[in-house]
Amino acid sequence: MSQFTPSEQARTLRVFNYAEDSGEYIGSSEIYLAPNAELPANCTLVTPAACPPGLLLRFDGETWQALEDHRGKAVFDTASGCQLQFNQLGALPDNLTLVKPPYPFMHWDGKQWQANLATAQQAKIAEIKAHRDHLTADYIVIDGHHFHSDTASRIQQTTLCKMGQAGQIPAGLMWQSKNNGLIELTNEIAARFEAETIAHDMRLFAAAQQHIAAVELLTELAAVINYDYQQGWQV
Protein backbone atom coordinates (compact mmCIF):
# COMPACT_ATOMS: atom_id res chain seq x y z
CA MET A 1 0.00 0.00 0.00
CA SER A 2 1.04 3.64 -0.31
CA GLN A 3 2.37 5.49 2.71
CA PHE A 4 -0.19 5.87 5.47
CA THR A 5 0.10 7.43 8.91
CA PRO A 6 -2.12 5.99 11.63
CA SER A 7 -4.03 8.47 13.80
CA GLU A 8 -4.64 8.46 17.50
CA GLN A 9 -8.23 9.35 16.71
CA ALA A 10 -10.88 7.01 15.41
CA ARG A 11 -12.03 8.06 11.97
CA THR A 12 -14.01 7.10 8.89
CA LEU A 13 -12.14 7.20 5.57
CA ARG A 14 -12.97 6.69 1.94
CA VAL A 15 -10.58 4.14 0.45
CA PHE A 16 -10.08 2.80 -3.04
CA ASN A 17 -9.94 -0.97 -3.33
CA TYR A 18 -7.94 -3.12 -5.71
CA ALA A 19 -7.73 -6.84 -6.42
CA GLU A 20 -5.06 -8.70 -4.47
CA ASP A 21 -3.74 -10.66 -7.44
CA SER A 22 -3.83 -8.07 -10.24
CA GLY A 23 -4.01 -4.70 -8.47
CA GLU A 24 -6.95 -3.67 -10.65
CA TYR A 25 -9.41 -1.14 -9.31
CA ILE A 26 -12.61 -2.70 -8.00
CA GLY A 27 -14.37 0.23 -6.36
CA SER A 28 -14.39 2.53 -3.37
CA SER A 29 -15.83 2.21 0.11
CA GLU A 30 -15.93 3.91 3.48
CA ILE A 31 -14.17 2.18 6.37
CA TYR A 32 -13.98 2.83 10.07
CA LEU A 33 -10.50 2.89 11.55
CA ALA A 34 -9.92 2.52 15.26
CA PRO A 35 -7.20 4.67 16.88
CA ASN A 36 -3.69 3.78 15.64
CA ALA A 37 -5.12 1.22 13.17
CA GLU A 38 -3.47 0.62 9.81
CA LEU A 39 -5.34 0.58 6.50
CA PRO A 40 -6.73 -2.82 5.57
CA ALA A 41 -4.98 -4.76 2.85
CA ASN A 42 -5.65 -4.07 -0.83
CA CYS A 43 -6.84 -0.50 -0.49
CA THR A 44 -5.36 2.99 -0.71
CA LEU A 45 -6.25 6.60 -0.02
CA VAL A 46 -4.84 7.62 -3.41
CA THR A 47 -7.74 8.77 -5.54
CA PRO A 48 -7.71 7.22 -9.02
CA ALA A 49 -7.92 9.58 -11.95
CA ALA A 50 -10.61 9.17 -14.59
CA CYS A 51 -9.93 6.07 -16.64
CA PRO A 52 -9.92 6.46 -20.46
CA PRO A 53 -12.47 4.29 -22.30
CA GLY A 54 -11.29 0.76 -22.97
CA LEU A 55 -8.59 0.82 -20.29
CA LEU A 56 -8.42 -0.44 -16.72
CA LEU A 57 -6.87 1.09 -13.60
CA ARG A 58 -4.24 -0.80 -11.63
CA PHE A 59 -2.56 0.29 -8.42
CA ASP A 60 1.20 -0.24 -8.39
CA GLY A 61 1.69 0.48 -4.70
CA GLU A 62 2.06 4.23 -5.18
CA THR A 63 -0.08 5.41 -8.09
CA TRP A 64 -2.87 4.28 -10.36
CA GLN A 65 -1.94 3.24 -13.89
CA ALA A 66 -4.32 3.06 -16.86
CA LEU A 67 -3.64 -0.21 -18.69
CA GLU A 68 -5.05 -2.15 -21.60
CA ASP A 69 -7.01 -5.24 -20.63
CA HIS A 70 -7.02 -8.12 -23.11
CA ARG A 71 -7.50 -10.93 -20.63
CA GLY A 72 -9.66 -13.74 -21.98
CA LYS A 73 -9.58 -12.38 -25.52
CA ALA A 74 -8.50 -14.45 -28.49
CA VAL A 75 -5.05 -13.31 -29.56
CA PHE A 76 -2.86 -14.60 -32.35
CA ASP A 77 0.83 -15.39 -32.46
CA THR A 78 2.43 -13.30 -35.19
CA ALA A 79 4.97 -16.01 -36.02
CA SER A 80 2.58 -18.95 -36.45
CA GLY A 81 -0.88 -17.39 -36.68
CA CYS A 82 -2.04 -19.77 -33.92
CA GLN A 83 -4.77 -18.60 -31.55
CA LEU A 84 -3.76 -18.19 -27.92
CA GLN A 85 -5.31 -16.97 -24.67
CA PHE A 86 -3.81 -13.87 -23.03
CA ASN A 87 -4.35 -13.55 -19.28
CA GLN A 88 -2.21 -10.58 -18.24
CA LEU A 89 -3.03 -6.93 -17.73
CA GLY A 90 -1.32 -4.49 -20.03
CA ALA A 91 -0.53 -4.09 -23.70
CA LEU A 92 0.04 -7.12 -25.86
CA PRO A 93 3.68 -8.03 -26.46
CA ASP A 94 5.04 -7.54 -29.98
CA ASN A 95 4.59 -11.21 -30.85
CA LEU A 96 0.81 -11.12 -30.32
CA THR A 97 -2.06 -9.39 -32.11
CA LEU A 98 -5.84 -9.23 -31.77
CA VAL A 99 -6.19 -9.41 -35.55
CA LYS A 100 -7.16 -12.88 -36.72
CA PRO A 101 -5.40 -14.08 -39.88
CA PRO A 102 -8.10 -14.53 -42.55
CA TYR A 103 -6.36 -17.62 -43.96
CA PRO A 104 -3.65 -20.03 -42.90
CA PHE A 105 -0.16 -19.48 -44.32
CA MET A 106 0.00 -15.75 -43.71
CA HIS A 107 2.78 -13.67 -42.14
CA TRP A 108 2.52 -10.59 -39.95
CA ASP A 109 4.28 -7.50 -41.31
CA GLY A 110 4.01 -5.57 -38.05
CA LYS A 111 0.65 -4.02 -38.92
CA GLN A 112 -1.38 -6.58 -40.82
CA TRP A 113 -1.40 -10.13 -42.14
CA GLN A 114 0.11 -10.66 -45.58
CA ALA A 115 -0.36 -13.66 -47.86
CA ASN A 116 2.45 -16.21 -47.80
CA LEU A 117 1.70 -17.80 -51.15
CA ALA A 118 4.87 -19.89 -51.42
CA THR A 119 4.33 -21.55 -48.02
CA ALA A 120 0.71 -22.33 -48.88
CA GLN A 121 1.75 -23.87 -52.20
CA GLN A 122 4.39 -26.02 -50.50
CA ALA A 123 1.83 -27.26 -47.97
CA LYS A 124 -0.74 -28.04 -50.69
CA ILE A 125 1.85 -29.88 -52.77
CA ALA A 126 2.80 -31.93 -49.71
CA GLU A 127 -0.89 -32.84 -49.30
CA ILE A 128 -1.06 -33.90 -52.95
CA LYS A 129 2.01 -36.12 -52.62
CA ALA A 130 0.67 -37.69 -49.42
CA HIS A 131 -2.62 -38.40 -51.19
CA ARG A 132 -0.72 -39.94 -54.11
CA ASP A 133 1.26 -42.16 -51.74
CA HIS A 134 -1.92 -43.25 -49.97
CA LEU A 135 -3.57 -44.24 -53.25
CA THR A 136 -0.39 -45.94 -54.45
CA ALA A 137 -0.53 -48.27 -51.46
CA ASP A 138 -4.31 -48.69 -51.61
CA TYR A 139 -5.19 -50.99 -54.52
CA ILE A 140 -4.64 -51.82 -58.19
CA VAL A 141 -7.45 -52.85 -60.52
CA ILE A 142 -7.48 -56.01 -62.65
CA ASP A 143 -10.71 -57.03 -64.40
CA GLY A 144 -12.74 -54.98 -61.95
CA HIS A 145 -11.12 -56.53 -58.90
CA HIS A 146 -9.26 -54.28 -56.43
CA PHE A 147 -6.10 -55.93 -55.16
CA HIS A 148 -4.16 -54.58 -52.18
CA SER A 149 -1.15 -52.54 -53.21
CA ASP A 150 0.76 -52.03 -49.95
CA THR A 151 4.40 -53.10 -49.72
CA ALA A 152 3.72 -56.56 -48.28
CA SER A 153 1.08 -57.28 -50.93
CA ARG A 154 3.40 -56.15 -53.72
CA ILE A 155 6.06 -58.58 -52.55
CA GLN A 156 3.55 -61.44 -52.69
CA GLN A 157 2.27 -60.31 -56.06
CA THR A 158 5.78 -60.33 -57.57
CA THR A 159 5.99 -64.06 -56.91
CA LEU A 160 2.40 -64.66 -58.03
CA CYS A 161 3.07 -62.77 -61.27
CA LYS A 162 5.99 -65.05 -62.11
CA MET A 163 3.87 -68.10 -61.28
CA GLY A 164 1.01 -66.81 -63.43
CA GLN A 165 3.28 -66.15 -66.38
CA ALA A 166 4.58 -69.71 -66.03
CA GLY A 167 1.06 -71.11 -65.70
CA GLN A 168 1.77 -72.36 -62.16
CA ILE A 169 -1.14 -70.87 -60.18
CA PRO A 170 -3.01 -73.82 -58.62
CA ALA A 171 -6.56 -74.26 -59.89
CA GLY A 172 -9.18 -73.01 -57.44
CA LEU A 173 -6.77 -70.75 -55.53
CA MET A 174 -8.88 -68.12 -53.77
CA TRP A 175 -7.49 -64.63 -53.15
CA GLN A 176 -8.80 -61.70 -51.13
CA SER A 177 -9.79 -58.59 -53.06
CA LYS A 178 -10.76 -55.28 -51.53
CA ASN A 179 -14.08 -54.89 -53.29
CA ASN A 180 -15.32 -58.39 -54.21
CA GLY A 181 -14.15 -60.48 -51.27
CA LEU A 182 -12.58 -63.84 -52.11
CA ILE A 183 -12.15 -64.45 -55.84
CA GLU A 184 -10.46 -67.19 -57.82
CA LEU A 185 -6.92 -66.13 -58.69
CA THR A 186 -6.24 -67.39 -62.19
CA ASN A 187 -2.97 -67.53 -64.11
CA GLU A 188 -4.28 -64.79 -66.36
CA ILE A 189 -4.94 -62.41 -63.47
CA ALA A 190 -1.73 -63.22 -61.60
CA ALA A 191 0.39 -62.70 -64.72
CA ARG A 192 -0.82 -59.10 -64.90
CA PHE A 193 0.17 -58.03 -61.40
CA GLU A 194 3.50 -56.48 -62.35
CA ALA A 195 2.34 -54.62 -65.46
CA GLU A 196 -0.82 -53.32 -63.77
CA THR A 197 1.16 -52.17 -60.74
CA ILE A 198 3.59 -50.23 -62.93
CA ALA A 199 0.72 -48.68 -64.89
CA HIS A 200 -1.05 -47.87 -61.63
CA ASP A 201 2.00 -46.08 -60.19
CA MET A 202 2.64 -44.15 -63.41
CA ARG A 203 -0.99 -43.07 -63.62
CA LEU A 204 -0.98 -41.77 -60.05
CA PHE A 205 2.36 -40.03 -60.53
CA ALA A 206 1.05 -38.27 -63.64
CA ALA A 207 -2.13 -37.20 -61.83
CA ALA A 208 -0.10 -35.83 -58.94
CA GLN A 209 2.16 -33.88 -61.30
CA GLN A 210 -0.85 -32.35 -63.01
CA HIS A 211 -2.26 -31.19 -59.67
CA ILE A 212 1.14 -29.88 -58.54
CA ALA A 213 1.57 -27.93 -61.76
CA ALA A 214 -1.90 -26.43 -61.33
CA VAL A 215 -1.12 -25.34 -57.76
CA GLU A 216 2.17 -23.77 -58.82
CA LEU A 217 0.31 -21.60 -61.34
CA LEU A 218 -2.13 -20.19 -58.77
CA THR A 219 -1.50 -16.61 -57.70
CA GLU A 220 -4.17 -16.16 -55.01
CA LEU A 221 -3.79 -17.56 -51.49
CA ALA A 222 -7.47 -18.50 -51.20
CA ALA A 223 -7.27 -20.41 -54.48
CA VAL A 224 -4.31 -22.43 -53.22
CA ILE A 225 -5.98 -23.23 -49.90
CA ASN A 226 -9.26 -24.23 -51.57
CA TYR A 227 -7.70 -26.17 -54.44
CA ASP A 228 -9.43 -29.57 -54.78
CA TYR A 229 -7.04 -32.35 -55.77
CA GLN A 230 -9.40 -35.25 -55.09
CA GLN A 231 -10.33 -35.90 -58.72
CA GLY A 232 -8.54 -37.76 -61.50
CA TRP A 233 -6.64 -40.44 -59.62
CA GLN A 234 -8.06 -43.97 -59.77
CA VAL A 235 -9.90 -45.46 -62.72
Number of helical stretches of at least 4 residues: 5
Main β-sheet, in a few words?
3 strands, antiparallel
Poorly predicted runs: none
Distance between the termini: 78 Å
> How many β strands by DSSP?
14
* Helix-strand pattern: EEEEEEEEEEHEEHEEHHH
Q: Which structural class is indicated by helix and strand composition?
A: alpha+beta
How many domains, in number, for the residues? 3
Q: State the shape.
A: elongated
Radius of gyration equals 36 Å
Q: Could you report the average pLDDT, rounded to the nearest whole number?
A: 93
How much of the residues is beta strand, in percent? 15-25%
Q: Kindly report the spatial arrangement of strands forming the biggest sheet.
A: 2-1-3
Helix amount: 25-40%
Briefly say what this structure is.
The protein is α+β, with helices and mostly antiparallel strands and 235 residues long. The chain is built from five helices and 14 strands. Helix 1 (117-136) packs antiparallel against helix 4 (193-217).
How are the SSEs placed, and which strands pair?
Layout: E1 11-18, E2 25-33, E3 43-44, E4 55-59, E5 64-68, E6 74-77, E7 83-85, E8 96-97, E9 106-108, E10 113-115, H1 117-136, E11 139-142, E12 145-148, H2 151-165, E13 174-176, E14 182-184, H3 187-190, H4 193-217, H5 221-225
Antiparallel strand pairs: 1-2, 1-3, 4-5, 6-7, 6-8, 9-10, 11-12, 13-14
Structural notes for this entry:
With 235 residues, this protein is α+β, with helices and mostly antiparallel strands. The chain folds into 3 domains: 11-68, no CATH class; 70-100, no CATH class; 118-225, no CATH class. The protein is 29% helix and 25% strand. The chain is built from 5 helices and 14 strands. The protein has helices spanning 117-136, 151-165, 187-190, 193-217, 221-225, and strands at 11-18, 25-33, 43-44, 55-59, 64-68, 74-77, 83-85, 96-97, 106-108, 113-115, 139-142, 145-148, 174-176, 182-184. Strands 2-1-3 form a 3-stranded antiparallel beta sheet, with no helix packed on it. It has a 3-stranded antiparallel beta sheet with strand order 7-6-8, with no helix packed on it. Strands 4-5 form a two-stranded antiparallel sheet. A hairpin with a 4-residue loop joins strand 4 (55-59) and strand 5. Helix 1 (117-136) packs antiparallel against helix 4 (193-217). The longest helix has 25 residues, at 193-217. The chain is elongated, with a radius of gyration of 36 Å. The N and C termini lie far apart (78 Å). The mean pLDDT is 93.
